[in-house]
């Protein structure tokens, strides 16, 4: 199947469940992204700052760019003018820097807090206590140019569907608790970004509102990056 066919298939499948499709275009060329764009896709996810900046400059202005990977504070300034949603916020320090750069650009930038749900050592994210601590802090209360619109999580890379299900359920429980405790009056706090090519079906069953699908749409990624861009 072509990229356009894949795109249409996944888009209609997830949207029929009321879920947004983030087409993860990391390592894909501008031409490839345009194929998906011309098939109707407008939301693209990238995990390297420089790669996203380069692509944004070359592609149509109505694309929503989502930064889905780990973000270093010193790179925020490059994406602050245009980024639509930052999925991987995992510290107060990063949130403060996003706020500072958003203010410079006279914007409010939407963010998701990345929560650590996987049974792996390598993944970034806050644990449940750290999420609560951050939201309770005076420093967070001062930030007027960021808006936290939900949570993001990455499940363990395993074939054990029961385990993946439990991890997504735990994130949903945390989300519901936080919604009541901190965002009861804010309709904008409504997003759960979980699910990738291998586990998006489970994610949607367990309450995901945005799935991040790459290889199922574009095919297996080549290891080489779009442009020289080693440290994100
Ligand atoms: C690469 C990536 C994805 C997409 O992964 P696929 O398995 O290709 O669908 C989703 N989320 C994050 C954070 C990623 O880095």
Describe the overall structure.
Pfam families: Ala_racemase_N (PF01168). The chain is of the alpha/beta class and 232 residues long. It has one domain: Alanine racemase (TIM Barrel, Alpha-Beta Barrel). The chain is built from 10 helices and 8 strands. Strands 7-6-5-4-3-2-1-8 form an 8-stranded parallel beta sheet. Helix 2 links the parallel strand 1 and strand 2. The two termini are 32 Å apart.
Count structural domains. Answer: 1
Ligand roster: pyridoxal-5'-phosphate
What's the shape? globular
Query: CATH class, anyone?
Result: Alpha Beta
Q: Biggest β-sheet, characterized?
A: 8 strands, parallel
Structural class: alpha/beta
Question: What is the level-2 CATH architecture name?
Answer: Alpha-Beta Barrel
Function: Pyridoxal 5'-phosphate (PLP)-binding protein, which is involved in PLP homeostasis.
GO molecular function: pyridoxal phosphate binding
InterPro entries: Ala_racemase_N, PLP-binding_barrel, PyrdxlP_homeostasis
Modified residues (N6-(pyridoxal phosphate)lysine): 26
């Amino acid at each position: 199947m072509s990229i356009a066919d894949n795109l249409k298939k996944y888009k209609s499948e997830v949207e029929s469940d009321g879920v947004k499709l983030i087409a993860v275009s990391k390592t894909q060329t501008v031409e490839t992204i345009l194929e998906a764009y011309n098939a109707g896709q407008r939301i693209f996810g990238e995990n390297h700052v420089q790669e996203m900046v380069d692509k944004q400059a070359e592609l149509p202005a109505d694309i929503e760019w989502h930064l889905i990977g780990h973000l270093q504070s010193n790179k925020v300034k490059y994406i602050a003018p245009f980024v639509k949603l930052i999925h991987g916020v995992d510290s107060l320090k990063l949130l403060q820097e996003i706020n500072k750069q958003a203010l410079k650009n006279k914007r409010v930038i939407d963010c998701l807090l990345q929560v650590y749900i996987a049974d792996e050592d390598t993944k970034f994210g806050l644990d449940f206590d750290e999420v609560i601590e951050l939201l309770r802090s005076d420093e967070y209360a001062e930030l007027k140019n960021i808006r936290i619109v939900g949570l993001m999580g990455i499940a363990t890379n395993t074939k054990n569907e029961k385990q993946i299900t439990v991890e997504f359920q735990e994130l949903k429980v945390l989300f519901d608790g936080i919604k009541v405790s901190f965002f009861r009056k804010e309709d904008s706090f409504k997003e759960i970004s979980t699910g990738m090519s291998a586990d998006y079906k489970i994610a949607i069953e367990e309450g995901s509102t945005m799935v991040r699908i790459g290889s199922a749409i574009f095919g297996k990624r080549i290891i080489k990056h779009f442009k020289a861009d080693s440290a994100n």
